[in-house]
Structures are given as structure tokens and as C-alpha cells.
Automatic annotation (TrEMBL):
GO biological process: cell division; chromosome segregation; sister chromatid cohesion
Record-given protein name: Cohesin subunit SA
TM annotation in the entry: none
UniProt key word Acetylation: no
Main localization, broad class: nucleus
GO annotations of cellular component type: chromatin; chromosome, centromeric region; cohesin complex; nucleus
Region span, Disordered: 1-74, 1038-1100, 1163-1187
Complexes and interactors: Part of the cohesin complex which is composed of a heterodimer between a SMC1 protein (SMC1A or SMC1B) and SMC3, which are attached via their hinge domain, and RAD21 which link them at their heads, and one STAG protein.
Cell cycle is among the record's keywords: yes
Length: 1208
């Protein structure tokens, strides 16, 4: 057994990287008086030191292959051969290892040096360990030298380089170590030289600060440990066999006992025991020298390697490793912050729980860490959650008493998860828990079918579970979760129909109405899953190609579905004909039929029965959902490819003839009665119109001329004003379908001119009718008219002629201005309203109603925004929508943002004008509410500024592409700010000057050279001051970033600009400063002081200069600027010319051009766990072995919850 808490007395446990020593180093008294340690893995009790050969003995191999003047060839292929062979992976690893063993037997120093260089090169280090270094330098010195020769230009090394070759390299690397130990397990690993040197080297490398060394050596050490575990396991088996042979021989009678055989067996057992002790020493050395430090390394990949391998050890050699001393490492690491490490913990535990024989040893671990495993089912990493559920399934499989009902319920609800792998894993858990126990069938007895089958109770259990999941009403998700593990149960449609149709057995409780509804819904979902072979909406990852086996299964299932339900569906419809919910689900089944079976299976009489039942349902029901599903059923059965088409078409035509004739007759009576219409007539015409509208959605009813009758009905409603709202809504929808079906026929290209003219007249008349209904007193009618009107305008817009449909150009219709105004007014009055307003009006008194109302309003807004996006209405109408962005962000923010994005893609300039228009509208509204003397810190004004900032974020970061749009936005904003002069006369700021504060919030992507004017200190001028400063601050840098495209053309503004004379200096100052702002930036020292003489051109400017975009030359709008400038000049003249302006703080970016960033992966700081080994420096190896286990603080790599985990 491996004693985990002890350190081997013969293993060099390092105190620090600088105190690592090679395995053959002898120490005398050190200068500081400390007793030196002989670092070796020599076997105990072997009499004398074993290890490396003396220098003289090593020299004997100097003349061998690969030696030159007593040194290893550093530039030849010998030192690269092993690495190159493993990297290429073309040779069998067995032969590679055998070749190395032969070289080791010839000269073990040369071979071992090759092995050392192999590990160094596998780490990505370009350095080579020479023979002299191997003989004379300690391990720490060698590692330090290799660190210095490491390539710092790249953080990649073989284990992290992408590509198929390097993925194969990792596999070959691990295989090489396993084969090496396997081939050396009988002799070489016990020579106290090869394994001692390799373990010492890997332990030293695993403590390196260089990630590549640490990662590679940890992987090598863990794989070496796994190989040694296999050797130890074989030794244990051999020892047991030898012991049994010895006991058997010793128990024989004296006459038959072979004493020489007993002596041989005794000697063999002794040798095996010594070998096992050696292997245990090696494993203890690796475990405590590498694992206990690296399983909490700062790099997640290294931690994952350790946890993965310890799981392998516990599974391979459970007698030695499967105990709490090793399981605690896995339990602690389940709290790791990285999902990759948590995933390795779960996969390691799955291998243990899969073996039922090991369950007794896992009881304490299960009780201690069960809660953590259950909580991991909700892990943010879906892969971890899946494996956690699978682990709980194995725990459930091993023992049914460990998991409490609360634990199981936390997994049950995951069957409704949107992530399919999680849902499938939860479905397997649910199936194990609820459906694993079936009634045993007696041998030789006939197979029970229907409600007597073993699946009957399981199907009932599924129904009960679905009904108890009150928070989830999606049976399709439950079926999809159980499909992979319980497809046989879910496809037992015969049992389901039997439970619905047959009477219950004596003593059996019948299904309630609610349970029957749930069973029908589940049955429909299973049929859809079998026929379509793809998961429900929200769980699919795209279409995938089905295999031949899956296609065959799909065809077989559709055949079974048709054969079974073609017979059983009519009686099911007859039984539940009056239940709308059940009928709606049952009538969807024919959509998944293989209609050819009706003919080949001679099931025509069942088809007649089905058509008869559907007709009766249409005549009995007025519910829209039922009627629409009846229409879809006729549409599915009316397939011209099958012989049953004529029969179904005749039945459909008869039904529609009766309904249309009835509607026309009722409509005539309805219009003649006028105001004396009774409720019965209203109900009759409404129900008939509902049936016709539902069928018109899926069937072309153009032959019955429904447009005339419906238009007459709508016109009467407009004239009288007392038409029932549902009749108007259904009539609008039916007329809409008439126009769409006529357009569909014209789109085929074989249309007549008369049909084109007729459709054009009908469409325009219908649009006018819908526009008139926008003013109806009933909200539902207005919403229906608005939605249909938006759809018609979008369909008949200029977009319809694209795609080779130029012949439809006469049908293109553009809404008039009056219609656009009414549509916008409807949106503002019915969409942008508060919830409280609706509540005060007596509507939406519950949360469900509020959500439904919000959903309806979102659809209305989306319908109008589509008109903006497709240029059906003018883009400027979007200003009234955009200005609501902040106020209604939670309700419609995503729709408005997407609309802004689409409009910007269409026309950046027009989009910018629309955005500034929306800000201007809000500003005017604020002025009308607060007056011109408003407080600029008010919530209204701050809200407009925040909206401007949000608008600015939509332009993106590409300043060159957005410059024109930003310029137009600023131009319109400046014009708006100076548009209205002050009523107090000249010298006073304009009324809208505060709007410049809003423009400041737009990104500073464009710099304007504004008036350099005398500034007064009154607060009324602050918007102009702030706006000017925002445009000038950092102007050189930002202007250069915008104008970089011009400078890249090679034009130098400065070279073309002549130095101005003193006489013209003031007049040309504005142009000069603008030109100077375009100079190519260079590395220049930032001046601490700037005189007014140098800044003077920045102020002096021609009176007519109005910035980049000239303002209107209105004397009343600019005289106040001139007056302010003259006053400031007079004031400056009185002060004198020796004054200095305030110095501007230069903004300097301190760029550290060091190699620190390149060393992030190599030198990851000095606070590694390995650098803080909590061992006293005065302890020698024997004293260290008596130290307590290393209790550590895992907070640096683990969640806070792990801090409460105690040791076993």
C-alpha cells in the first residue's frame, strides 16, 4: 500500500528551485554550516551508494556513438533523434523504445542524456544539455541554463501549438512514456539510476517558473506515475499468485512437499516484495514531489492533468489509491474556478461509480460531496452540467438511497432545459429513476398489448410527471429529453390509444379529463418527433444529415403511425369532438401520415370516416384554433400526388360551398335588417365568416368572389358605425387573404391585364377602407386594421418588383402623406403608453394580461418599423420612434435599436438627420413644458443628453466612414441652436443655445474651428463655451485620426502652406490653424508653456469665418457674436500684451516598451504555490518525511465554498 501522508526517506523533496541537486551529488558541510543532503533515490539497505558512475567510469563511453572528444554532439541528429521520431509518429513506439533500451545497455549515460534532452525539447526549449553539463552541474543549474536558452519570442510550445501534427505529438509523447516503463519494468527501472534521474529531472522541471517546463514535466510525471501504477498492479497480482502457490505447496504432506520449490517461491516472493517497495518509493516521490503541488497550479491545464490521472490511478489500482486520502483531492478540486478542471473531476468520478464493486469505498466521499455534485448540475459550463447529471445517474444506479427526493427534483426540471445535451442527460436520470422498474413478463405467455402492456403504467407515470411540472407546459421538450433513452416506451402508440379509447380494467382507475388532455399532447409530440427526426424549436443546432439507418427508422415509424392512427383517429375524434383542446391536438396527426398507405393498405373507408368527423367538427366549432387546424388537415390530405386527392377535394369543395352560400344568404339578410339585427343572426354570420376566413388562409377561395361581399360588409360598418367588432375583424382578415391569393396567382406570370387592373383597384380600395377603420372607436378593430394595412403596404411596395417580377410594377403602391401621418399617430397613441394608463382604463388587471398586451404592442411597433426599414414611409418619421428609445427601453429598446441600425445601413446621412430631429423634438417639448429659463441639471434635459450619448454609440468606431454623418448631425444641430434669435434683441444668446450642450454628448469624431470670440462669464453663455471647448480640446490628435486618410496620400499641408506675412497673419490665422491640425503627428516633446504670441493665430480670424460649415448670414443671428468679440478685444488691450494664457496640460501616454508582455506565459509571477513550500530549511530528508501533510489555502484557484471543506 502507498502511504500518502509520508514522504519517502530516499526522495529528494525540493525546498526551492535553487536548491535542487542531481541524483549523484555528494555533499559535505556547506559554508553556512548546514548539513548537506545526498539527493538520490538509492534503494534502502542495498549496502553502499548507487547512482551515477564516477567521472572516470563515465569517460569509458566517450568513444561510443554520438560522442566527439568526450562530449555529446550538440549539433548532430543524435540529440534530436528521439524527439523527432516521437513528433513525427511514423514509427511504432515499441521499436523506438527498444532501440533506446539497446543504447542504454551499451552506454547508459549517453542514452540517459538523450532522454533528458528529449524532455527538454518536448517543452519547446531550444537548448541542449551537453555531456559536461550532465556530469558536472546540478539539476537546478541545468534547468536555469535551459531557462536562459528558452525562446521568449513565443509562448507556444509543443503541448499548446495548434494543428493536427502537434495533437498527435501529445498522444505519441504519452505513449512513449507508457511503453518505456512497460519495456523496462523487469530490470532497468530497478537499476536505481534511470528512474532516479528521470524523476529528479521531472520534479525539478515541475517547479520551474516557465510554464512550458512545468506543463510538459507535469504531464510526463503523471503519465510516468500511471505506468508505474500498472507495474505495481502487475507486481501485486504476481505476489498474490506466488503466495497462493507457496501456501498450496506448504500444505502438502511431507512426502509430497518439494522443499526446493518452496525455497524458490519464497525467494521469488521476496524479490517481488522488494520490487514493489521500489515502485512504491518511486510513486511516492512523484506524488508528493509533483502531484500535491501541481494539482493546485495556477494553470488550469496542469490542474486538469493531475485530476485526470489520479482518477486513472484510483480506477486501475483501487486497493492502493481508492481511499479518502486521495479522493479528497478530487472533492476539493470540484470547486475549481475553471470548468475544464471541474469536468475532469466528474469524468474521473464516473469511472469509479460505474464499477459497483467500488461503491462501498465511495460511501464517505458520496455523503461528503453529494451536495456539491448536485449543485454542479446547474453549472454555468454546460459540459460540466451534463457530466454532473451523468454522475448522479451512476450514483442512482449504484444505490437508490443516497439521493434524497429534493436532490432528484433538482435534476428533474432540467428535462425542460433549452440546452439539449443537458436535457438528454436529465432525461436519462429521470428514466432511470421512474421507469427502470417494469413488470416482469412471464416466459411463454403471449405478449400483452394495449392498456394491459407493461408500458401502460409507465405511460401513466409520464403523464403524471408532466402534469406535476406546473412551471413547464411544453410536452415536446419532455419527449425530446426522453427520446434517446425511452424511444421504445414513447413509440407505444397502441398503448396510448388504448388508454384513451378502451374502458379501464376492473380495479383500475380511469384517467381524468386533464390527464387525457396531457396524454393526447404527449402522443402528438412523440408522433412529430418520430416523423420529423429533429428536436423542437430552441433545441436544434441546425439541420444535420441523417444516416441510412435513421432514414429507414423514420420511414418505418411513419408507416406505423399511418396504419395505427388511420384506424384509431376517427373514433378518437368522435369521442372528444366537443373538446377544443383535445381536437386541436388530434387533428394535427394527419400532417405526419404517409398518405400512400390509405391506398396500399385499403384504408379508404377509414379516410371517409376521418373526413366525415372533420366536417362535423368544422360545423360544431367556432374556435379559431380548431378551425385553422381543420383547414391544415384538409390541406395535408389534398395532395395531388396521391390517389386520395379527388376524394378529399370533393369533400372540401362541398364543405366550402355550403359555408359560402350560407354566408352570402346571412349577409343579405343582415344588411337588409339594418339596426334590427338580433344576436342569433350576428352569431351565425360571425361563425360562418370565421370558418371561411380560417379556410381561406390555407386554400384558394377566389372562385367564390368573397371580396365583394366582405367589402360591402365593411362599408356598411363604416356607414352605420355599430358593426360588431369580431365581424369587422374577421371581414378585414378575409379580405386580406383574398388580395394575397390574387397576388399569388398574378406572380406566377400567366396573368391577364384585366386581373391586374382588378387587383389594383381592390388593393387601393381596401387600403382606404383600413385607413378609415383606424379611427374606429374599438381598439381591437383599429389594431387589426393597422396590422393588415402595414402588411399590405409592405407587400405592395417597390420591393415587390425585385427578383424578376417587373410585370407587377403597376401594382406598386406608395402611401400618401395623410396615411403616413395616421399610421404614425396610431403608433404614438397606442404603443407608447404606460402600463398604468391601461390599468386605469380597466384593462390588464393581471400579470398575464399585461404581458399579452405588451406582446401585442411590440408587434404593432415592429410592423411600423418594417415600413421605415423598407422605405415605405419616409425615414424622418422614425424620429418620433427614436426619441422614445430611453423612456421605453425595457419594452421596445431592441426593436428601436435594430431599426436605427437598419436605417443607418440604408443611408447614414439621412439617419443622422433623423436622429438629430428626434433630439430637437424632445428639446422643443421640454421648452414648452419648462420654459426657456429651465435648469440645465433637470432630469428632462439630462435625459435628452443621455439619449444623444446613446445615439452616438450607434455610429461605431470607424471615424472615416461615419465622419459625413457626424458632420451632418453637428451641422443640423448648430443651425437649430442659432435658428431662433433672442427676443431681447442683439447681444443676447439665441433661444435654443442650450441645445449645444446636447451636441457635446455626440462623439468627438469631428473638430470644428468655431468663433474665437470674447467670452462673458454669465451662465447663459456656458453652452457655447462648453461646446467650443469640446470641439477644440485635443483637436490636433483627433483631427489627425479622422484625416489620416488624407495624410496617407502623401500630401503635406505644411509643405504647401507658405509662411504668412505679418500683415496677413491675422486674416489667415483660421485657415492656418486648421491646416496645422492636419499635420502628421510625430514624436515631439510636449511643451510646458505656450505663449499668447504662439496662440494668437488661433483667436485671430476673419469676421466672415463661420467654421467648417458656414451658418446662415443673418445679421440678427451673428451681431451678438461680433459684439462679444469686440468687448473682449478691448478688455485684452487694457490688460496689456504681457499676459500669458493658462497652460494646457499635455496628455501624454506612457508607453512601456519592455518585454514584460512577452514573458507573461513564461514568467507568471513569483507567487507560485511551488515557491512557498511550507517546509523548514533545516530539515533533512528523514526529518521531512515525518512532517504533517501540506494544508493549503485553495482560495487562489477555487471558489469560496471550498474553504468550508474539511479533510476526512
Amino acid at each position: 500500500m502507498i502511504a500518502a501522508p509520508e514522504l519517502p526517506s530516499d526522495f529528494p523533496f525540493p525546498q526551492d528551485t535553487d536548491t535542487r541537486f542531481s541524483s549523484d551529488t555528494d555533499f559535505s558541510e556547506e559554508p553556512d554550516g548546514r548539513t548537506a543532503v545526498t539527493v538520490s533515490l538509492a534503494a534502502k539497505g542495498k549496502g553502499g551508494k548507487k547512482g551515477k558512475k564516477p567521472a572516470g567510469e563515465k569517460g569509458k563511453g566517450a568513444k561510443g556513438t554520438g560522442r566527439l572528444n568526450g562530449h555529446h554532439q550538440e549539433n548532430g541528429m543524435e540529440n534530436m533523434m528521439l524527439f523527432e521520431v516521437v513528433k513525427l509518429g511514423r514509427s511504432a513506439m515499441q521499436s523506438v523504445v527498444d532501440d533506446w533500451i539497446e543504447s542504454y545497455k551499451t552506454d547508459r549515460d549517453v542514452a540517459l542524456l538523450d532522454l533528458i534532452n528529449f524532455f527538454i525539447q518536448c517543452s519547446g526549449c531550444k537548448g541542449v544539455v551537453s555531456g559536461e553539463m550532465f556530469r558536472n552541474m546540478q539539476n537546478s543549474e541545468i534547468i536555469r541554463r535551459m531557462t536562459e536558452e528558452f525562446d521568449e519570442d513565443s509562448g507556444d510550445y509543443p503541448l499548446t501549438i495548434a494543428g493536427p501534427q502537434w495533437k498527435r505529438f501529445k498522444t505519441s509523447f504519452c505513449e512513449f512514456i507508457a511503453v518505456l516503463v512497460r519495456q523496462c519494468q523487469y530490470s532497468i527501472i530497478y537499476d536505481e539510476y534511470m528512474m532516479d534521474t528521470v524523476i529528479s529531472l521531472l520534479t525539478g522541471l515541475s517547479d520551474s517558473q516557465v510554464r512550458a517546463f512545468r506543463h510538459t514535466s507535469t504531464l510526463a510525471a503523471m503519465k510516468l506515475m500511471t505506468a508505474l501504477v500498472n507495474v505495481a498492479l502487475n507486481l501485486s497480482i504476481n505476489m498474490d499468485n506466488t503466495q497462493r502457490q507457496y501456501e498450496s505447496e506448504r500444505n502438502k504432506i511431507v512426502a509430497k512437499r518439494a522443499n526446493d520449490r518452496l525455497e524458490l517461491l519464497l525467494q521469488k516472493r521476496k524479490e517481488l516484495q522488494e520490487n514493489q517497495d521500489e515502485i512504491e518509493n518511486m510513486m511516492n516521490a512523484i506524488f508528493k514531489g509533483v502531484f500535491v503541488h501541481r494539482y493546485r497550479d495556477s494553470i488550469a491545464e496542469i490542474r486538469a492533468i493531475c485530476i485526470e490521472e489520479i482518477g486513472v490511478w484510483m480506477k486501475l489500482y483501487s486497493d492502493a489509491f481508492l481511499n479518502d486520502s486521495y479522493l479528497k483531492y478530487v472533492g476539493w478540486t470540484m470547486h475549481d474556478k475553471q470548468g475544464e478542471v471541474r469536468l475532469k473531476c466528474l469524468t474521473a468520478l464516473q469511472g469509479l461509480y460505474y464499477n459497483r464493486e467500488l461503491n462501498t469505498r465511495l460511501e464517505l466521499f458520496t455523503s461528503r460531496f453529494k451536495d456539491r455534485i448536485v449543485s454542479m448540475t446547474l453549472d454555468k459550463e454546460y459540459d460540466v452540467a451534463v457530466q454532473a447529471i451523468k454522475l448522479l445517474t451512476l450514483v442512482l444506479h449504484s444505490t437508490d438511497e443516497v439521493l434524497s427526493p429534493e436532490d432528484c427534483e433538482s435534476v428533474y426540471h432540467l428535462v425542460y432545459s433549452a440546452h439539449r445535451p443537458v436535457a438528454i442527460a436529465a432525461g436519462e436520470f429521470l428514466f432511470k429513476k421512474l421507469f427502470s422498474q417494469r413488470e416482469p413478463e412471464e416466459e411463454g405467455a403471449p405478449k400483452r398489448r394495449g392498456r394491459q402492456s407493461p408500458n401502460a403504467n409507465l405511460i401513466k407515470t409520464t403523464v403524471f410527471f408532466f402534469l406535476e411540472s406546473e412551471l413547464h407546459e411544453h410536452a415536446a421538450y419532455l419527449v425530446d429529453s426522453l427520446w434517446e433513452c425511452g424511444a421504445e416506451l414513447l413509440k407505444d402508440w397502441e398503448c396510448m390509444t388504448s388508454l384513451l379509447l378502451d374502458d379501464p380494467l376492473p380495479g383500475e382507475e380511469a384517467l381524468t379529463d386533464r390527464q387525457e388532455t396531457a396524454l393526447i399532447e404527449i402522443m402528438l409530440c412523440t408522433v412529430r418527433q418520430a416523423a420529423e427526426c429533429h428536436p423542437p424549436v430552441g433545441r436544434g443546432t441546425g439541420k444535420r444529415v441523417m444516416t441510412a439507418k435513421e432514414k429507414k427508422t423514420q420511414l418505418d415509424d411513419r408507416t406505423r403511425i399511418t396504419e395505427l392512427f388511420a384506424v384509431s383517429l376517427p373514433p378518437l375524434l368522435a369521442k372528444y369532438a366537443m373538446d377544443s383542446e383535445k381536437v386541436t391536438n388530434l387533428l394535427q396527426l394527419p400532417q405526419f401520415f404517409d398518405l400512400e398507405i390509405y391506398t396500399t393498405g385499403r384504408l379508404e373507408k377509414h379516410l371517409e370516416s376521418l373526413l366525415r368527423q372533420v366536417r362535423e367538427i368544422v360545423e360544431k366549432h367556432t374556435d379559431t384554433d380548431v378551425l385553422e387546424v381543420c383547414s391544415k388537415t384538409y390541406h395535408a390530405l389534398c395532395n395531388e400526388e396521391f390517389t386520395i386527392f379527388n376524394r378529399v377535394d370533393i369533400a372540401r369543395s362541398q364543405l366550402l360551398d355550403e359555408q359560402v352560400d350560407k354566408f352570402n344568404r346571412l349577409l343579405e339578410d343582415f344588411l337588409q335588417e339594418g339596426e334590427e339585427v338580433d344576436e342569433d343572426d350576428t352569431y351565425q354570420i360571425l361563425s360562418t365568416l370565421k370558418r371561411i376566413t380560417a379556410f381561406h388562409n390555407a386554400h384558394d377561395l377566389s372562385q367564390w368572389d368573397l371580396f365583394t361581399s366582405n367589402f360591402k360588409l365593411l362599408n356598411t360598418g363604416i356607414e352605420n358605425g355599430d358593426m360588431p367588432e369580431q365581424i369587422v375583424i374577421q371581414s378585414l382578415q378575409c379580405t386580406h387573404y383574398v388580395i394575397l391569393w390574387n397576388l399569388a396567382k398574378l406572380s406566377e406570370g400567366s396573368s391577364r391585364k384585366e386581373d391586374m387592373v382588378t387587383l389594383r383597384k381592390q388593393m387601393r380600395a381596401f387600403c382606404l377602407m383600413c385607413q378609415r377603420y383606424l379611427t374606429n372607436v374599438n381598439t381591437a378593430v383599429k389594431e387589426q386594421a393597422f396590422t393588415i394595412l402595414c402588411d399590405v403596404l409592405l407587400i405592395f411596395s417597390h420591393q415587390m418588383v425585385s427578383g424578376g417580377r417587373e410585370h407587377l410594377e403597376p401594382l406598386v403602391y406608395s402611401p400618401e402623406d395623410s396615411l403616413q401621418v395616421e399610421l404614425l399617430s396610431f403608433i404614438l397613441n397606442h404603443v407608447f403608453i404606460d402600463q398604468d394608463e391601461e390599468t386605469n382604463n380597466g384593462q390588464q388587471d393581471d400579470e398575464a394580461g399585461k404581458i399579452e398586451a405588451l406582446h401585442k404592442r411590440r408587434n404593432l411597433l415592429a410592423a411600423y418599423c418594417k415600413l421605415i426599414i423598407y422605405c415605405v414611409v419616409e425615414m424622418k418619421t422614425g424620429a418620433d420612434i427614436f426619441k422614445q428609445y430611453m423612456r421605453y427601453y425595457n419594452d421596445y429598446g431592441d426593436i428601436i435599436k435594430e431599426t436605427m441600425s437598419k436605417t443607418r445601413q440604408i443611408d447614414k446621412i439621412q439617419c443622422a438627420k433623423t436622429l438629430i430631429l428626434s433630439l430637437q423634438q424632445l428639446f422643443n417639448e421640454m421648452l414648452s413644458e419648462l420654459g426657456h429659463g429651465f435648469d440645465r441639471s433637470s432630469s428632462s434635459f439630462c435625459g435628452i443628453k443621455e439619449l444623444a450619448r446613446r445615439f452616438s454609440l450607434t455610429f461605431g468606431l470607424d471615424q472615416v466612414k461615419t465622419r459625413d454623418a457626424i458632420a451632418m448631425l453637428h451641422k443640423d444641430g448648430i443651425e437649430f441652436a442659432f435658428k431662433e434669435p433672442s427676443p431681447q434683441g442683439e447681444g443676447n444668446p439665441p433661444l435654443h443655445l442650450a441645445f449645444l450642450d446636447i451636441l457635446i454628448c455626440v462623439p468627438e469624431m469631428l473638430r470644428f474651428m468655431t468663433f474665437q470670440m470674447a467670452l462673458q462669464r454669465e451662465d447663459c453663455w456656458l453652452p457655447l463655451i462648453s461646446y467650443r471647448n469640446s470641439l477644440q480640446a485635443g483637436g490636433d490628435d483627433d483631427t489627425m485620426s479622422v484625416m489620416s486618410g488624407y495624410s496617407s496620400r502623401g500630401s503635406s499641408v505644411r509643405s504647401k502652406k507658405a509662411k504668412p506675412t505679418a500683415a496677413t497673419k491675422e486674416s489667415s490665422s483660421s485657415s492656418e490653424v486648421w491646416q496645422q491640425s492636419l499635420q502628421t503627428p510625430v514624436m515631439m516633446p510636449s511643451p510646458h508653456l505656450t505663449s499668447t504670441a504662439m496662440r494668437e493665430p488661433k483667436r485671430g480670424r476673419d469676421d466672415s469665418y463661420m467654421g467648417v460649415y458656414p451658418l446662415p448670414h443673418d445679421h440678427s443671428q451673428v451681431t451678438w457674436m461680433l459684439a462679444q468679440r469686440q468687448q473682449e478685444e478691448a478688455r485684452q488691450h487694457r490688460r496689456g500684451t504681457g499676459l500669458m494664457e493658462e497652460d494646457e496640460e499635455p496628455i501624454v501616454e506612457d508607453v512601456m516598451m519592455s518585454s514584460e508582455g512577452r514573458l507573461d506565459d513564461l514568467n507568471e509571477g513569483m507567487d507560485f504555490d511551488t515557491m512557498d513550500i511550507d517546509l523548514p530549511p533545516s530539515k533533512n530528508r528523514r526529518e521531512r518525511s515525518e512532517l504533517k501533510p501540506d494544508y493549503f489555502d485553495p482560495a487562489s484557484i477555487m471558489d469560496e465554498s471550498v474553504l468550508g471543506v474539511s479533510m476526512f
